[in-house]
UniProtKB/TrEMBL annotation:
Region of interest (Disordered), residue spans: 156-232
Protein name from the UniProt record: Domain of Kin17 curved DNA-binding protein-domain-containing protein
Positions of the DNA/RNA-binding protein Kin17 WH-like domain: 52-178
GO molecular function: double-stranded DNA binding; zinc ion binding
Feature: compositional bias, Basic and acidic residues: 156-178, 198-209
UniProt GO cellular component terms: nucleus
One Pfam family hit: WH_KIN17
Low complexity bias spans: 182-197
Keywords: DNA-binding, Metal-binding, Zinc, Zinc-finger
Length: 232
């Protein structure tokens, strides 16, 4: 079967149906043994090999629990990040894919008693953004790798600089508006007081008149001087 077909939700659902989800409950992680049903599981727990394993477990229960929990978490997050990266996805979809691997570490061997509890842990630890909907829990992996953080920082820097650009542009526009207002105010002041302008014009006219009257006078003077020369 091609890999893509193998991972489609339908293919996964079919495999789960074929295998029977109930079986997950009758799996012994310590012995890595799958039992068919409750009765089979009971029989297994009575077996000498299981008792030996349980003795080991009880001697360092927290160590086993921690190791199983860590492995479960690592494998689950590995699947989540590789398959979905930072896309938001239904937690149960990822879980179904996770358990479709025959060799997966079973959740009943971890400190989490339900997927909801595990999802809450992902959210608390900042491993994923989690949110509950009527369709169940959704998870979104948070990429904390140095490369992703650097990329994030670059995006934020760019956003900041574009905000700076916007503010600079806004300031320029405000300055232009202020300048335009000032100019309008100056113009209206000039229009409101037309008298000085008229007075100035009158003054100029008078000067011109004066010049006009003076010039002929000067010409007369010259004429007089000229006429005076032959007279002497
Ligand atoms: Zn066992």
């Amino acid at each position: 079967m091609p890999k893509d077909g193998f991972l489609t939700p339908k293919a996964i659902a079919n495999r789960i149906k074929a295998k029977g989800l109930q079986k997950l409950r009758w799996y012994c992680q310590m012995c890595e043994k799958q039992c068919r049903d409750e009765n089979g599981f009971k029989c297994h727990t009575m077996s000498e090999s299981h008792q030996r394993q349980m003795l080991l477990f009880s001697q360092s229960a927290s160590k086993y629990l921690d190791n199983f929990s860590r492995e479960f978490l690592n494998e689950f997050v590995k699947l989540l990040s590789r398959r979905y990266n930072t896309r938001r996805v239904q937690a149960n979809v990822v879980y179904q894919e996770y358990i479709s691997d025959r060799t997966h570490l079973h959740m009943n061997a971890t400190k989490w008693t339900s997927l909801t509890e595990f999802v809450a842990h992902l959210g608390r630890e900042g491993i994923a953004t989690v949110d509950e909907t009527p369709k169940g829990w959704f998870i979104q992996w948070i990429d904390n790798s140095p490369r992703a953080l650097a990329r994030q920082a670059a995006i934020q820097k760019k956003e900041r600089s574009s905000v700076d650009d916007e503010q600079r542009e806004k300031r320029l526009i405000e300055e232009q508006i202020a300048r335009a207002k000032q100019q309008t105010a100056e113009q209206s002041t000039e229009e409101q007081t037309p008298t000085p302008t008229e007075l100035k014009r009158d003054g100029t006219d008078e000067k011109i008149k004066l010049n006009l009257t003076l010039k002929p006078a000067a010409a007369e003077d010259t004429a007089e001087t000229k006429s005076a020369v032959p007279a002497s």
